[in-house]
Specification:
By secondary structure, this protein is an alpha+beta fold. It has 2 domains: 204 residues, Jelly Rolls; 111 residues, Homeodomain-like (Arc Repressor Mutant, subunit A), CATH 1.10.10. Helix content is 40%, strand content 22%. It starts with 27 loop residues before the first strand and ends with a strand.
């Protein structure tokens, strides 16, 4: 018979069928109901179903051990699908986080609109307060670390963004800590951890927090670098399309496959707006043309229209606000200056 442990006490004694508590190298054929009950005892209420060949029995093996406030679970079995449903969360939500370390085979985790595929040595974070789905391959083995959210020092926003994101065992801190996490399987061979269990559990939490803090730092640096690159591309695009009267945040965002809201946020972080950049660059282009005698034959309105400012009155008002005089007065003042010639590298008025 299977008895459920109190879901709000990670150190509660678990009563799982004797055959499931054997050394987990391969799963035992048991009924789906028995397996669901065993999973509920070790973790939180879950729904499980067999994948692959039809039949009433599902393969599974499970061992569990408490390390202070941390619960360590060694689980293996055949192909199956496990769900944490909204209904189950409403019925019982003890607020646990879980980190699954893949030992053998593969596992797919889906949560928060993301998918994480685990290969041996990889690990992933998931939140029992949010629905998720696990799909395992055949002959899978995994180590699951479960702990109360209140003990987790990683910020809530980071935790939410890092769920269902694979931490690879082949690089970074993931590569450093993966052997440590996988090695926790040896805990099940220790008959008594009365004096070291709490310390080991705390070490596990500290190590995992370090991994996810580092992952967040790298992600932030990457996002900042990506944002800087994107802003640079947007500035180039604006410069190349100043003559288009329809140049606006909507068309710019569309050309770069981002939302208008995100485009505005990028420029706000630079202390300016998209519209002000477009306006300033257009006015500067117009000023340069008005100062260039090669364009003296062009009406002021034509100069403005060349750079996307098709309303002459509006252009005149903007120009005066920016440079202190109307575009016509600006051009006249320049034409009244004596021509300049270059003598020995100096601009010298002709007298």
């Amino acid at each position: 018979m299977i008895h459920s442990a109190a879901v709000d006490d990670p150190t509660a004694a678990l009563f799982v069928p004797a055959q499931l508590q054997s050394r987990p190298r391969a799963g035992f054929p048991i009924t789906t109901d028995a397996w669901v009950a065993a999973l509920g005892s070790a973790f939180v209420p879950l729904v499980a179903a067999k994948r692959g060949e039809p039949g009433d029995l599902i393969e599974g093996s499970l061992r569990t051990k408490a390390l202070g406030n941390v619960r360590l679970n060694a689980v293996c079995g055949g192909e199956q699908e496990v769900h944490r449903t909204r209904r189950a969360i409403k019925r019982a939500d003890p607020g646990y986080l879980k980190v699954t370390v893949q030992v053998a085979g593969t596992t797919l985790l889906e949560q928060n609109g993301r998918e994480a595929v685990l290969h041996p040595g990889d690990f992933v974070l998931h939140d029992t307060s949010v629905p998720y789905r696990l799909r395992t391959g055949r002959d899978f083995r995994a180590l699951v670390v479960m702990f109360p959210r209140r003990l987790w020092t990683v910020p809530e926003g980071v935790t939410r963004e890092r769920t269902a994101v694979t931490v690879s065992s082949r690089s970074g801190l993931g590569g450093i800590f993966s052997p440590f996490l996988s090695g926790l399987r040896s805990v099940f061979e220790e008959p008594d951890l009365a004096y070291g269990g709490d310390a080991l559990g705390a070490a596990v939490l500290t190590s995992l927090a370090a991994v996810y803090d580092e992952a967040d730092r790298h992600a932030t640096e990457h996002e900042l670098s990506t944002a800087r690159d994107l802003v640079g591309r947007v500035h180039v695009y604006i410069e190349a399309h100043l003559g288009d009267p329809d140049l606006a945040p909507v068309s710019i965002a569309s050309a770069h496959h981002i939302s208008v809201r995100y485009l505005h946020r990028l420029f706000e972080e630079e202390g300016q707006s998209v519209a002000s950049v477009i306006r300033r660059r257009r006015l500067e282009r117009c000023r340069l043309d008005l100062a260039d005698h090669r364009h003296d034959h062009k009406p002021v309105s034509a100069v403005a229209a060349r750079w996307g400012l098709t309303n002459a009155a509006y252009f005149s008002r903007l120009f005066k606000e920016a440079y202190g005089q109307s575009p016509t007065d600006y051009r006249r003042a320049l034409s009244e200056e004596p021509p300049r010639v270059v003598v020995h590298g100096f601009n010298t008025p002709v007298r």
